[in-house]
Write a structure and sequence with these properties.
The radius of gyration is 17 Å and the shape is elongated. It starts with 9 loop residues before the first strand and ends in a 16-residue tail after the last strand. Helices cover about 0% and strands about 55% of the residues. It has a single domain, classed as SH3 type barrels.
Length: about 80
């Protein structure tokens, strides 16, 4: 599980977001861990800041930084 030492690092958090046919529906949040308390986590994704109840977390871990963007290839000059 994530802890205060993971603040500011890139993480993935698998969490329960609902239920379908009596089974949990899971979703992953991928982004930067911005806050952690005894009851919740906050993850800044590319599109939003997610506040996740720790009771919904199934798995979570720190992951490597995002690789640098590659520039588009240019056609060879003639």
């Amino acid at each position: 599980m994530l802890g205060p030492h993971d603040l500011g690092h890139r993480v993935v958090v698998r969490r329960i977001v609902g239920e379908r046919a009596g089974r949990p529906v899971l979703s992953d949040a991928l982004g930067t861990l911005t806050d952690i308390t005894d009851t919740s986590l906050s993850v800044a994704t590319d599109t939003a800041e997610l506040h996740i109840d720790r009771r919904a977390v199934v798995a979570a871990k720190r992951i490597p930084p995002r690789p640098p963007r590659r520039s588009p290839r240019r056609p060879p000059e003639v």
